[in-house]
Write a structure and sequence with these properties.
Glutaredoxin, alpha/beta, five-stranded mixed beta sheet, about 140 residues, globular
């Protein structure tokens, strides 16, 4: 299951932006963070998919959720305009943001390639990061 983060747990597990202006990842494992809100339809599609992925990548990738209604400060720190927005956090590189309800295969492709640096099958190439799924304006 994806774990819900609030500001306190976010600062501890992901990034303490109050201490550091530059991105400094606090986690042990590559991480996916789902910025969502209860009223957003597409978010309800992504949630269960991420829960499935969190089981498939157990011990390799952490999955977190941030409810942007409750955690408006976190949403504004990351400039979240539309939701769902997914932040992909590699262990030692800059994070990347993907917006919208992306299909499971696309998410797996991004996780394998960007977070785990696995060789990814060529046919996924055209999916790249510019793919936008359904989204809600925040």
């Amino acid at each position: 299951m994806s774990e819900n983060l609030n500001k306190v747990t976010f600062l501890e597990k992901v990034f303490n932006y109050e201490k550091s202006k530059d991105w400094k990842f606090a986690g042990e494992l590559p991480t996916v963070i789902d910025f969502w809100a209860p009223w957003c339809g597409p978010c309800r599609i992504v949630g269960p998919v991420l829960d499935e992925l969190s089981n498939e990548y157990k011990g390799k990738v952490n999955f977190y959720k941030v409810n942007t209604e409750e955690e408006q400060e976190l949403a504004s720190v990351f400039g979240i305009q539309s939701i769902p927005s997914l932040l992909f956090v590699p262990k030692d590189r800059q994070p990347m943001m993907a917006v919208g309800a992306l299909p499971k295969d696309t998410l797996k492709g991004i996780i394998d390639k960007e977070l785990l640096s696995l060789p990814v099958a060529e046919e996924h190439e055209h999916h790249h990061h510019h793919e936008h799924g359904d989204q809600c304006q925040h």
